[in-house]
Amino acid sequence: MQGTPQSRSSSSNTVGVGKTDTVRCYCGIPAKYAASKRTRIGDKYYGCPLWPRGCGFFMWEDNVVVAVNDNRGSGSTQMEERVEKLIEEKTSMAEKLCKLKVKREKDAEEIAAMRQENRMLHSDCAKHAKGENFLL
């Protein structure tokens, strides 16, 4: 079972982590583990390692719950398999979302560069038009 968060709220929700898994952010990568320097000074937390450009995942360490495999039977196994599949789908979607956010930023930068080039070309056209009017 991967340690993906249950929701985007930070302090009131918990996240399940298997005995050998680590907490993962919404990007699907292992979350950064650090100590707070601002609020709750010294308390440990998990956060997206790509911050500020990443998914924005944040969770205090005391909200992380270790999942225990209690072998409740075959019905439980089917449900666990379904949960695992849903977690994999969520991780996949989170990875896609993270990639789309990066692409959106690159596209925004490219659009800004194109707008600047457009302004320069427009200015050059205006200068040339003034020059032609002067000659006529």
- Taking pLDDT < 50 over at least 5 consecutive residues as the criterion, the unreliable ranges are 1-20, 67-73
C-alpha end-to-end distance = 78 Å
Described by strand count, sense and barrel closure, the largest sheet is: 3 strands, antiparallel
Q: How large, in whole angstroms, is the Cα Rg?
A: 25 Å
Task: Characterise the protein shown here.
This protein is of the alpha+beta class. The chain contains one helix and five strands, in the order E-E-E-E-E-H. The strands form two sheets. The chain has a three-stranded antiparallel β-sheet, with no helix packed on it. The longest helix has 62 residues. The chain starts with 14 loop residues before the first strand and ends with a helix. 15% of the residues are buried. The N terminus is likely disordered.
Concise synopsis of the structure shown:
The protein is an alpha+beta fold and 136 residues long.
Descriptive tags:
single chain, 136 residues, alpha+beta, 3-stranded antiparallel beta sheet, two-stranded parallel ribbon, 5 strands, disordered N terminus
List the helices and strands and how they pair.
Layout: E1 15-17, E2 32-35, E3 44-47, E4 58-60, E5 64-66, H1 74-135
Parallel strand pairs: 1-5
Antiparallel strand pairs: 2-3, 3-4
